Amino acid sequence: MRELTYVARRTVEWREVPDPKLRSDGEAIVAPVAATPCDVDSAILAGHGFIEPPFALGHECVARVVETGDAVTSVAPGDLVVVPWSINCGTCDRCRAGLTAHCATVPYMAMYGAPIGGSWGGLFSDLVRVPYADAMLVPLPAGLDPVALASASDNWSLAWRLVAPHLTARPGARVLVVARGSIGLYVCDIARALGASEVLCVDPDPEHRALARDFGATTAETLEPLPQSHDIAVEATGRVDQLALALKCLTPEGICESAGNHFRPGELPLLDMYLTGVTLRVARDSVRAHIPDALALAASGRVDPGKVVSHVIDWEDLPAALPEKHLKPVFVRAGAGDGS
Ligand SMILES: [Zn+2]
Ligand SMILES: [Zn+2]
Predict the structure, then answer these.
(1) CATH of 158-282, one of 3.40.50.720, 2.60.40.10, 3.30.230.70, 3.40.190.10
(2) 162 C-alpha vs ligand 1 centroid, how far in Å?
(3) Ligand 2: distance of its center to the CA of 106 in Å?
(4) Which terminus of the chain has fewer Cβ atoms in its 10 Å neighbourhood, N or C?
(5) Three-class SS of residue 282?
(6) Residues in Cβ contact with 338 at an 8 Å cutoff, skipping those fewer than 6 apart
(7) H or E element: which one contains 220?
């Protein structure tokens, strides 16, 4: 089979590798049917990652189950499933506490789409081995579109985590979103749906801002200091200066979620944070624990993640199209895993 391999800045190519095989009776083999780059993949493709190529890329997809081991009970061949970005066993203390990104059974940081914590391949591959099928795979609810929810593996469900619990704790809060990709737009959609009184989306890209306005947000091209203007801030830029500005916009005891991959160092306004008593959470998130909630919100019809899908492209065009398409291109494979 082929796996899409990141080989150099702005360059990916198919590489032939052996088909994955079940290694125990709790595993599954799945065939991605709709896969999309995580926002961090765009940074990697632009040459901003910290891992030397080559490596198999991709950690967001909806897949069809092709084969399951005898002990697998939650999914069966033919099912459409969300494949979470991180590898987790489901039974260790951390997994049972919901800390699926920190599973103690597998090498630390084990994930698809980057060779850290072992080598698990990428989800831009013709076939994928899922080592703990019952713990990892989440059936896609009937009626949900695999293209719209290809990002449920990571960015869509992460966006739910970044804002939904905080809006439950602070109904009607004002939400600041500082972003430059899909995560920020998903957060705008979810925040509005869950009753935020105001959503301000700061994104340098005019097309992103137009989408944010579609989701009911007001928009700005750059973030100006707006002291004590927002109760919740979500930063997803990977830039510490932007995170620092977002922190300065918070009301007393406000909360800031940082989902940016901060590959570069920087300084935070710790004295301001101390004086306003803000909480900053920076996390490589345990998304698997939130996928069911995020899918339930999508199934409610109150949100429209499909609006963020920027292009729908044939699977065969991955090598040429992936480095060129931005925001949320979804690569689809007709007939994958259904025997055709
Ligand atoms: Zn990701
Ligand atoms: Zn575990």
Answers:
(1) 3.40.50.720
(2) 14
(3) 7
(4) C
(5) strand
(6) 64, 78
(7) strand 218-220
Q: What is the pLDDT of residue 338?
A: 53
| Cα separation, 94 vs 105, whole angstroms | 9
292's tokens: 């069911």
Nearest ligand to the C-alpha atom of residue 156 = 1
What does the radius of gyration of the chain's CA atoms come to, in whole angstroms? 19
Is the pLDDT confidence value at 98 over 70? yes
Domain 2-154+286-332, classified CATH 3.90.180.10, yes or no = yes
Coil, helix or strand for 267?
A: coil
Query: Is the whole model's pTM more than 0.90, yes or no?
Result: yes
Which residues have a beta carbon within 5 Å of ligand 2, which is an ion? 88-89, 92, 95, 103, 105
- Sequence ranges of the domains in the chain: 2-154+286-332, 158-282
Q: What are the pLDDT digits (tens) for 231-268? A: 999 999 989 999 999 999 999 999 999 997 888 889 99
DSSP assignment, residue 111? B
Characterize the bridge pairing of strands 329-332 and 28-35.
antiparallel
